Amino acid sequence: MVVGGPMATYDLRQTAYVKLVLHALKHTSCAVNGVLIGRIGKGDGESTVEVTDCVPLFHGQLGLLPMLELALSLVDEHLAAGQDRSLQIVGYYHANEQFDNLELSSIAKKIGDQIVRYCSQGAILLLDNKRLQALAKENTNAPVVQLYVKEGSSWKLGGSGSELRLKETMANSILNDYRKEKREVRVVDFDEHLDDVSKDWLNPTLFN
Amino acid sequence: MVGASEERELERLEKQVEEGGGGVVEYLSLVRKLKVRRSNIVAKHGLQLLNQASARSKLGSDLWTVYEQVAIACMDCHALDSAKKCINALDSKFPDSMRVGRLEGMWYEAKGSWQKAEKVYSNLLSENPSDTVAHKRRIAMAKAQGNMTVAVEGLNKYLETFMADYDAWRELADIYTSLQMYKQAGFCFEELILSQPTNALYHLGYAELLYTMGGIDNLRTARKYYASTIELSGGKNMRALYGVCLCGAAINQARGRGRTEEESQELVSLAASVLVKKYKEKASSKAGLVSSILDKYKQLAVA
């Protein structure tokens, strides 16, 4: 029996990973956030959360409720009406405003709590800017985000026994390539959509 | 805030400049006018421009404004050597200038040499206590180091003297919101709305804050400010249109069952129809999804 919280392996797919990092790279002077989409699988007694995609939400002011509620409703509805019914919101990602700030803010925790109400293995991914900077100089297989898992009433870094891994080994190389060509300019988040509805928060052509 | 047509012009010039089609001077000028932050592109093309003697002489007296703009852009991109060169050029032309002094302070900030920067700003302020930019740089330093309480104190003190600085009130509201001190943020918005009652964005900001605070009174007031935003923005502001629908649903849920507010139904229906129309025009792939969500809000507003 598992005590104190679910132990899970979080498989972070390239689409989700690269998109969220590009979102942060687009808005270097602000905090950014978004939701993670994926599916929960079970096998061999422990669960795997496959994070297949993400929806970039906001940049700048992350602490206001109305548009967040709206965005979550729209994403939920979009997934419910979609072809793949196994997909759901499985987490939240966040990048702080200051370069060396690795604190999980209370806003991030609140949003994370909200997601955990609907998905018990919901996780938070926090961008580590130092690792991202180092990645430009030297390629590694490690993701540049930290995993937070809810255990009891608090969010724990890494979670006991939980693991985050990049599903595709090429993910960081692809990320580096995209950075060089400034692909981040093309990321659309929900904020931008609200300013111009013709911009699509699904980012259908981002990786073309 | 940049209007839609200005945004398009900016994007057009940016594309042209990046593709090597010229127009750097116009682009730099537009960036200054709109006060947008496009540091990578400004630094890259600005430096190229400034390195050409013929381009420099064509700029005439604008040369120094461009040096300043490019210096700041370089600092934003952490190209500190290039920034220093620009600052040195300005220093030679304008020795003992307060404006150049501020750039020197910013250069230390970009380096992370907070104490040296602080020294520069205190010197500037002792000679000229009404240098608002130096005051605000100090507050920005506190924010950059993550000292939010110091930043808030500094901004409050600043606003006691310079109470007509709307940008400062707006910044303070933002910092309070990120600290989840919503009441204090609300006070800032009230000041802003009192001084500029026709600025739709202030009404919108206040509405979003009130909604976040929650409770039926705040939600009712939020709805009023979303409605005034719609009026002041000619019905074009998506957040306000959505906001009215969100409020309608939230107010009804907060009230409890059995009592419907007539006004909220009509307002929600109107806002919803404007939204759907807009999506059908501009983003038809999303029209179905949005329609479906709005129907849910409409139902919640009367259930």
UniProtKB/TrEMBL annotation, chain A:
InterPro entries attached to this UniProt entry: EMC8/9, MPN
Entries under CDD domains matching the protein: MPN_UPF0172
PROSITE patterns: MPN
Location of the MPN domain: 10-149
CC annotations in GO: EMC complex
Similarity field: Belongs to the EMC8/EMC9 family.
Protein known as: MPN domain-containing protein
Organism annotation: Physcomitrium patens
Phylogenetic placement of the source organism: Eukaryota, Viridiplantae, Streptophyta, Embryophyta, Bryophyta
TrEMBL record, chain B:
Source organism (scientific name): Physcomitrium patens
UniProt KW keywords: Endoplasmic reticulum, Membrane, Repeat, TPR repeat
InterPro entries referenced in this protein's UniProt entry, alphabetically: EMC2-like (IPR039856), TPR-like_helical_dom_sf (IPR011990), TPR_EMC2 (IPR055217)
Protein name: ER membrane protein complex subunit 2
Domain EMC2 TPR-like intervals: 100-209
Summary of the function given for this chain in its UniProt record: Part of the endoplasmic reticulum membrane protein complex (EMC) that enables the energy-independent insertion into endoplasmic reticulum membranes of newly synthesized membrane proteins.
Gene that this sequence comes from: LOC112274694
Family statement: Belongs to the EMC2 family.
Gene3D superfamilies from the UniProt entry: Tetratricopeptide repeat domain
Membrane topology: Peripheral membrane protein
Source species, domain of life: Eukaryota
GO cellular component: EMC complex
Keyword Transcription regulation recorded: no
Pfam family, one: TPR_EMC2
Quaternary context: Component of the ER membrane protein complex (EMC).
